[in-house]
Design brief:
Blueprint (H helix, E strand, L loop, with lengths): L6 H11 L10 H12 L4 H8 L3 H15 L6 H19 L5
Helix pairs in contact: 1-5, 2-3, 3-4
């Protein structure tokens, strides 16, 4: 469905979602944390075990993501919005002719 959206609409969506900061401010460690968090169905305890970090460290990272993006990934609705935004961003990056 995303692939059929006009590029301009995709860019507007990303600008709307990431008003505070651009998605590019997320470093590799943060991206991996987010991916693992999604893989573990937003379960903080399980994700911290898989990442080999203390639960409080993961909570700190999730708070950092919230401060950067305004999206609390522990909230299902925010997690869905973030996931779709990442898919849109990946689509735009993988098709440079569309940007």
């Amino acid at each position: 469905m995303i692939y059929h959206l006009p590029t301009k609409l995709c860019e507007m969506f990303l600008n709307e979602i990431f008003r505070k900061e651009s998605i590019e401010v997320l470093d590799q460690e943060t991206i991996i944390t987010i991916q693992k968090f999604f893989e573990n169905n937003l379960n903080v305890s399980e994700t911290s075990r898989k990442l080999y970090v203390h639960r409080n460290t993961l909570v700190y990272r999730l708070d950092k993501i919230y401060k950067l993006t305004g999206l609390d990934l522990r909230n299902f609705d925010d997690a869905i919005v973030f996931k779709v935004a990442m898919m849109v961003k990946r689509y735009l990056v993988s098709n440079p002719t569309k940007i």
